[in-house]
Amino acid sequence: MSSKKTHSVGLGSQMMYGMGEFFNGGAFVIINSFFTVFLIKAMGMPAALAGMIPLIGHIWDAVTDPIMGNITDRTTSRFGAKRFYILIGSFATALTFIVLWIPSPVHSGGAMFAFYVLMYCLFSTGSTILMVPYNGLLPDMIDDYALRSRFSNVRMIWSTIGSMVCGLVPTFIITDTTAASNYMRCAVLFGLLFLITTLVTFAGTWENQKEPVHTNLRDSFVQSASVFRSRSFRLFIGIYLTGQCGMDFVSGMAVYYVQDVLNGYDNHYFTYLMAVLLVSQLAGMLVWGPVMARTSKRTTILIGAPIRIICTLGLIPFSYEGANIIPILVLAAGIGIGNAATLTSIFAIMADMADVDELITSVHRPGIVSGMATFARKISSGLSAGVIGLLLSLVGYDEKLASAGARQSAATNTGISVIFILMPVVLVALLFLFGYLFPMKQKEFNVIQRENRRRRGEDSSVTTEEEKKICEKVTGIPYQKLWHT
Questions:
Q1: ∠ CA(167), CA(169), CA(173), 5° rounding?
Q2: So what's the pLDDT on residue 387?
Q3: What is the mean pLDDT of residues 68-82?
Q4: In Å, what is the CA distance from 184 to each residue of 28, 33, 112, 281, 440?
Q5: How far, in Å, CA of 122 to CA of 99, rounded?
Q6: Which end of the chain is less packed: N or C, by CB atoms within 10 Å?
Q7: Which has the closest alpha carbon to 183: 42, 365, 319, 299?
Q8: Of 445, 459, 253, which Cα lies nearest the Cα of 359?
């Protein structure tokens, strides 16, 4: 069952495809910036426990994401399997995002912790239903390397728009970080926005019908683990985790940095910081997309990562109460521009991983591949939140002082500065290393697609020795074992 129709691939189609990223780019900014703040300052939960909740929720994703990837590849629908689940997921994510911020009906420490673990697992499941098929949609929409890059770049622009809106608007709603009702008003507003934008993506995309993959659900975990046989996918996961975790630490620690270190939350410094970060990131997307198209999907990583490192380290002499906000905002602009470069590459590379996987396995299974990529993104968010909570406890963060609106100790504020600056630097340095090692550019991509066509009987040309070496370099597997692994 294979059918292809002619579809418009202009800016309108790119915009409607990319709009689905508004949720992914925005929801996690709100969660990373405010969920542990909500738990600690509004609910009075200890920082270490609050940080564990997203991590536990994303451990749950280790079960749901592989299963969802398998379900997607096994499904047939007149809408297309992935678009069908995007439709369902649009409602699931909106509802579960809202319930995540319900004030706990119980007040004992253990019961409250269990309540929010359950709420977060529900949200993670809703996110899985939407994002696993969405991450696997582009390979079944577009075959061309450069065109995929353009669609991915527009997707990243929407991600940045989501981050901007979700990073700035809540600061005007959550004026008092100890008032639980502020968080709920914010959740209802954004739940509706997430619903609308994902429904537009469902309506404005298409899917080239493919034969469903005939695997059992019980094989989901074996199938998902098998994607790691690809050298390119392993390096991509390294790129994805370090790149996203680096920014998760920035967004997750920003409230603490502004409120406790700079003592500037009431002066709207947090709003200024997020505005500059996100506006510069959006501007960077407009620059780095064409650069990536003219060079390669790894080049912008190698440019953007050093910019992020230098600008982040530049914050060190300005991390104290009463510091001039102007140089901090200038450095934040540099961080946003560097982040735009790395983000542009990450999602463009993701779309190519199903082609490499097919060369290894002989099966076209973008759902399985995207399931593991989605899981990696959620794990990055969960690990960041868990580590932030643990590190805050280690530097002596006092949730009772926080709930009372009081300042933390000088030593604790120094520790917050160290976490906010050094953790992203370490992660982005690893991102640069993984980007340097990544083996695929357009030449390699074209060889992989051509070889897949040969093995499907759609191309009668003979593989050259150079092409065999490229296949081995990209997959990390001897040529004679490909398509049979």
A1: 120
A2: 86
A3: 85
A4: 16, 15, 17, 28, 44
A5: 9
A6: N
A7: 42
A8: 445
For the chain, where do the domains classified as CATH 1.20.1250.20 start and end? Answer: 14-208+220-440
- Among residues 444, 290, 452, 298, the alpha carbon closest in space to that of 366 is found at 452
Coil, strand or helix at 61? helix
pLDDT in the model for residue 2: 43
Quick one: angle between helices 353-361 and 442-455, nearest 10?
Answer: 40
Do 321 and 259 contact (CB within 8 A), yes or no?
A: no
| Range in 147-156, 339-348, 373-382 the model is least confident about | 373-382
What backbone torsions phi and psi does residue 462 show, to the nearest 5 degrees? -100, 135
In DSSP terms, which residues pair with 209 in a beta bridge?
A: 3
Average pLDDT over residues 345-353: 86
How high does pLDDT run on average in the chain?
89
Residue pair 335/277 in contact by the 8 Å Cβ criterion:
yes
From 51-55, 410-414, 416-420, 424-428, the region with the lowest mean pLDDT:
51-55
pLDDT surpassing 80 at residue 210: no
> Across the strands, what pairs with 3?
209
**pLDDT at 1 (0 to 100):** 41
> What contacts 24+ positions apart, CB below 8 Å, involve 380-383?
380/240, 380/241, 380/244, 380/245, 380/248, 381/28, 381/31, 381/32, 381/54, 381/58, 381/244, 381/248, 382/54, 382/55, 382/56, 382/57, 382/58, 382/59, 382/61, 383/55, 383/58, 383/245
Pairwise CA distance, residues 4 & 50, whole Å = 48
For 461, counting Cβ atoms within 10 Å of its Cβ (0-12 exposed, 13-18 middle, 19+ buried), the class is exposed
Rounded to whole angstroms, the maximal C-alpha distance in the chain is 73
- pLDDT given for residue 453 in this prediction: 92
**pLDDT per residue over 264-294, tens digit each?**
988 889 889 988 988 998 899 888 888 988 8
Query: Token pair of 356, please?
Result: 């490499």
Residue 211, φ and ψ in degrees, nearest 5: -60, 135
Burial of 41 (C-beta count, 10 Å sphere; 0-12/13-18/19+)? buried
Q: What is the CATH number of domain 14-208+220-440?
A: 1.20.1250.20
Residue 455 · residue 480 · CB < 8 Å: no
